[in-house]
Predict the structure.
Amino acid sequence: MAGIVVVGAGQAGSSLVAKLRVLGYSGDVTLIGDEPVPPYQRPPLSKAYLMGKMELERLFLRPEAYYGEHNITLRTGAPVTRIDAAAKTVWLGDEAIAYDQLALTTGAEPRQLPAAIGGDLGGVYAVRRLSDIDAMSAEFVAGRRVLIVGGGYIGLEAAAVAAQKGLTVTVIEAAPRILGRVASAETADFMRDLHSSHGVTIREGVGLARLTGDGRVSGAELADGSSLAVDFVIAGIGINPASALAEGAGLTMDNGIAVDDHNRTSDPAIFAAGDCASFDYKGSRIRLESVQNAIDQAESVAANMLGADKPYAPMPWFWSDQYDVKLQIAGLNTGYNRIVTRLAGSARSHWYYAGDTFLAVDAMNDPRGYMVGKRLLEQGKNPDPAALENPETDLKSLLK
Ligand SMILES: Cc1cc2nc3c(=O)[nH]c(=O)nc-3n(C[C@H](O)[C@H](O)[C@H](O)COP(=O)(O)OP(=O)(O)OC[C@H]3O[C@@H](n4cnc5c(N)ncnc54)[C@H](O)[C@@H]3O)c2cc1C
């Protein structure tokens, strides 16, 4: 028996192999990753780890010994270069590994600023891998000037760390506002004010024309004709699903590796999960770039590989830490036409509705609002907006 092979040793890959053992699978399991370290969590990379407040060891999802103890072959620093789906074999250069079932958990690659506009200059960094953070951390010295290109979560989290370390921080966002793709205008307003109060300059509706410098970046010219001097640059301009391997194997692509409701690709022996996989959610094909989805989808793959025959039911949730604010999001607010704001002490939450249907909640320093919102979504309940708006309402009463 060739067993199960998992390509991509990140959040999803490591959850998948662990779940296989929890479910009692005793066949061969091989987890293959191209990074030189055991699977680790990425969220702290733009938060506590970048801040210098988290040890490397604590990033690892499981101690390295775990894999051996559970008879899981972990291959690190080992890029898979090709899949031969007909022969059920993956290739690492000229080494072949056979599989009965294969899972692709290859994650995503950060979009790069094009070399034609200076994206290849020294001092320009992405925020995806541990090696990216280790490369940029020496730049975080008080008084230095950083330009952050992109006002999404990753860019804003890096901005928060830089501001707290005493750097002069400018964020530019080409779209009309920050967090345009992922959050409402109300949540973006709150985040903008938070950054402004920490001295960060946020310029919205202004793209990057080009980076300048001799070998190393020293300036930026913006689309509105202005320019600024910089010491280094962080690009937080989104990710692309890492799907080249799957494409090469002839699998169906659609905004990443297309999977069905059992997380199976167009090849019945190959599954996919995590940032690289797209699936149908309420009629649209989406990818959820979040830890929770990586774990849940990977665990669903493990169960279905072992014959569970159970559709995947995603429950989107996400969080972001910036300064002393924890933002927690349950659900997806796509299609909302009404927003209810709840202010209760220092807790703030935004509740999204399409008509009377409750879709999602953004909770800022409001763990109770988040937890209740998540439960309401799980139960398919639509809380009364008037009750939410009233700070005297005990949120838990809405669950009854
Ligand atoms: C800086 C940062 C902060 C984040 N913060 C949050 C947050 O606060 N909350 C949240 O929910 N989510 C957050 N995320 C998103 C979350 O980390 C991802 O959604 C999650 O890691 C996806 O897991 P994955 O297993 O799909 O991909 P990954 O964890 O990226 O793992 C994929 C792995 O596969 C490897 N690989 C790719 N191709 C090959 C190949 N051919 N051969 C071998 N290996 C290969 C990759 O190198 C990588 O190691 C953050 C992400 C980043 C980068």
The pocket of flavin-adenine dinucleotide is lined by residues 7-13, 32-35, 42-43, 45-46, 79-80, 105-107, 127-128, 154, 242, 245, 274-276, 289-292, 294, 318-320 (CB under 6 Å). The chain is about 25% helix and 30% strand. The CA atoms of residues 148 and 171 lie 5 Å apart. The mean pLDDT is 97.
